[in-house]
Amino acid sequence: MNATSIWLTLAVVLCILEIFSSTFYMIAIAIGFLAGAAAAAFKLSLSFQIGMSALFALISAFMIRHWKLTHLQNKASDIDNEIGQRVSIEVWQDENHARVRYRGSQWNAVLAHDCQRSDEGHWHISAQHGATLEISNKQPL
């Protein structure tokens, strides 16, 4: 097995392991291994292969970290923007659960603890729990 095959095998193994971790950092290291494979394909020295691998892995890891920080902050602010928005009741499923229309699509909703089912009035989002909206007929503050 030549050096290029070893680098490529390591990259594939990390990509498979990434499926189970979902952090994307193993992909960054795999990108580094691909850079090492490219250096090995050009018959460069082992120290240069390792250096290229480390450099590309670090650059990839920093890019992933930057992407995660910017996107996670935006998600948190998006959830805050949902609070207080008006929804319309499509159908009641039981006394505490309903399907509501919000932003052109249907969502599962649960009544806030201080509310009771009513077919009249305006409903507002008071919280969000995953893909379920908590709704209230009291005006948000």
Folded structure, characterized:
This protein has 141 residues and is an alpha+beta fold. It folds into 2 domains: 3-80, no CATH class; 86-136, OB fold (Dihydrolipoamide Acetyltransferase, E2P) (Beta Barrel). The protein has 3 helices and 5 strands; from the N terminus they run H-H-H-E-E-E-E-E. It has helices spanning 3-21, 25-41, 46-82; strands at 86-92, 97-102, 105-111, 123-129, 132-136. It has a 5-stranded mixed β-barrel with strand order 1-2-3-5-4. Helix 1 packs antiparallel against helix 2 (25-41). The chain is rod-shaped, with a radius of gyration of 25 Å. The model has no long low-confidence stretch (mean pLDDT 89).
Short description:
This protein is α+β, with helices and mostly antiparallel strands. Helix content is 52%, strand content 23%.
Give me the secondary-structure topology.
Elements: H1 3-21, H2 25-41, H3 46-82, E1 86-92, E2 97-102, E3 105-111, E4 123-129, E5 132-136
Parallel strand pairs: 3-5
Antiparallel strand pairs: 1-2, 1-4, 2-3, 4-5
Helix pairs in contact: 1-2, 2-3
